[in-house]
Design brief:
The complex is a heterodimer of chains A (248) and B (270). With 248 residues, chain A is of the alpha/beta class. Chain A contains seven helices and eleven strands. In chain A, a hairpin with a 3-residue loop joins strand 10 and strand 11. Classes of the chains: A alpha/beta (248), B mainly alpha (270). At the A-B interface, loops of A face helix 8 and helix 9 of B.
Chain lengths: 248, 270
């Protein structure tokens, strides 16, 4: 099977300083990859390279030939903390912006219907005309998830979708992602290994380099071995630490 | 005393009235973008830097507005260059160009032999002395701004809101940013005669703040800003004539009063 995305010997970073070196990764249809690692380890750089926002210094990323870039193949949910919450824009317009160039030929009414359908399905139709500044963290996250998936992308990329979100919505979010995963390849960055472990199919640990696990089991020993200063936390009813904290 | 309607029989007043309309449309729309994108300070830098061009034009004897346009665009690019290429922090880059332009302006004006009579009207504006050719330029500007914002409304909004997301969708973000910064430069310069270099930021921000009291929808914000800019500049113009005070200052004072009153009303009504 040909991979959807093929990353070969990629080195990437900012301002001529490499953050992530020598990455090799193949992403296939219906993969659900959890990307974990410490802050500054290169999680976001990996996503941005795949999105084409930053260019690799070395190596390359190739997409399978059937991916049509005219149709906006990648849905993206950026870190919500980077969004200007006081920008004068309504929920409806934010979600509509997910369609951007992909459906310019569609009629106005049809576009409106699509946005409203998705908002209704997500249970946020009543906030459609609200300014984004008036929303709660959970609502914000839902709005930006809608923006990411409204174009029906083949690949969905999420950068820490669980920040500012309460536990109840967190569960809902991952259930929703599990459903989306039936039709989409998902790449998810999170700092919360314990939570995502139950949902993702594979794990990539990113800390200057990338270590790939072909299943969703990861042990503290492996993390130690990769120098991955992450704490494994298990979430039952009450979050608790399952393994000892280890030193950077 | 004549009633304001009778004023329309005077040629100078008709011109002032027209320039108030044109200024309201271009500043209302461009200001809405500037405020939403939080680039008020950049706009201030570009405006003040344009004074260097006015000084140079006085010194060499060509049209001051042409000099201002050149300096405004040059400083806009200069700020970008300092920030992105020379890695100077953005607010410092802005301050450098802001003060450099003003300094050059002062030097050129000082070196210009003889008295420069209408320097004050560039610094503080005088809507009553706007000439016919300047009116035409303002009209062209309004046409271009309206055309760009009508045709490209969606990409402009999406890029302003979330540049990175727009990039992932394949929008030509850099191209749009250059077009918009050029429009900002043209808008501040061509409206300098209305309220002046020092006061132009008010037309880009106060009507927008007032509009923002009533809507958070970007399209409505641009429309309402234009309306408030128009109300403020025309009533300011009439007040300046009645009280015989400088028009630029009267317009801004009116804009602030309208904002203040509506803000208070909204506070109490709620």
């Amino acid at each position: 099977m040909q991979p959807l995305i093929h990353i070969e010997n990629m080195t990437v970073g900012y301002d001529r300083k490499p953050v992530l070196s020598n990455v090799n990764l193949q992403i296939f249809d219906n993969d659900f990859i959890g990307v974990i690692g410490p802050n500054g380890g290169g999680k976001t750089s990996l996503l941005k390279a795949i999105l084409g926002l930053i260019q690799p210094f070395e190596g390359k990323i190739t997409f399978r030939s059937d991916i049509n870039f005219q149709k906006k193949p990648i849905g993206y949910l950026p870190q919500v903390k980077n969004i200007d919450r006081r920008f004068p824009i309504t929920v409806f317009d934010v979600v509509k912006s997910g369609l951007m160039m992909s459906l310019t030929k569609e009629s106005k009414e049809k576009t409106k219907q699509r946005v409203n359908d998705l908002l209704a399905e997500t249970g946020i139709i009543e906030i459609s005309n609200k300014a984004i500044g008036e929303l709660s963290g959970g609502q914000m996250q839902r709005v930006f998830l809608c923006r990411a998936i409204i174009s029906n992308p083949k690949i969905l990329i999420l950068d820490e979708p669980d920040t500012f979100v309460d536990n109840r919505f967190e569960g809902e979010l991952y259930e929703k992602l599990r459903k989306l995963n039936e039709n989409m390849t998902i790449i998810l960055v999170s700092h919360d290994v314990g939570t995502i472990a139950g949902y993702v199919k594979t794990i990539a640990c990113v800390n200057g380099r990338l270590h790939y696990h072909s299943d969703n089991k990861i042990t503290q020993e492996q993390l130690d071995e990769y120098n991955c200063p992450i704490q494994l936390i298990s979430h039952g009813k009450v979050p608790h630490r399952v393994l000892k904290n280890h030193i950077l | 005393m004549n009633s304001p309607i009778e004023l329309l029989q005077y040629d100078f007043f008709v011109k002032a009235f027209l320039s108030a309309i044109f200024a309201s449309i271009s500043c209302g729309i461009i200001g809405g973008y500037v405020v939403a994108k939080r680039i008020v300070f950049i706009s201030g830098g570009i405006t003040h830097a344009s004074f260097g061009g006015i000084g140079l034009a006085f010194f060499l004897g060509f049209n001051p507005l042409l000099g201002a346009v050149l300096f405004a665009i040059f400083s806009a690019l200069g700020i970008q260059f300092f920030t992105k290429v020379a890695e100077i922090r953005e607010d410092s880059s802005i301050a450098i160009w802001w003060s450099l332009g003003m300094a050059l302006g002062i030097i050129f004006v000082f070196l210009t032999p003889g008295y420069t009579p209408n320097l004050m009207s560039y610094l503080f504006g005088n809507i009553l002395t706007v000439t016919k050719s300047e009116l035409w330029w303002m009209f062209f500007l309004v046409t271009i701004v309206l055309a760009v914002f009508l045709i490209f409304f969606k990409p402009i909004l999406y890029i302003a809101f979330d540049e990175e997301f727009a990039r992932t969708a394949g929008l030509p973000v850099t191209l749009f940013n250059y077009i918009i910064i050029t429009l900002i430069a043209l808008t501040v310069v061509l409206n300098i005669r209305v309220v002046g270099i020092i006061l132009i930021l008010s037309l880009l921000t106060i009507p927008q703040a007032t509009a923002n009291l009533f809507t958070s929808d970007f399209k409505k914000l641009l429309l309402l800003s234009t309306v408030f800019a128009f109300v403020g500049s025309v009533s300011g113009l009439i007040i300046s004539w009645m009280l015989d005070i400088p028009s630029g200052a009267a317009i801004i004072f009116t804009l602030v009063v309208v904002f203040g009153v509506l803000k208070l009303v909204k506070q109490f009504v709620r």
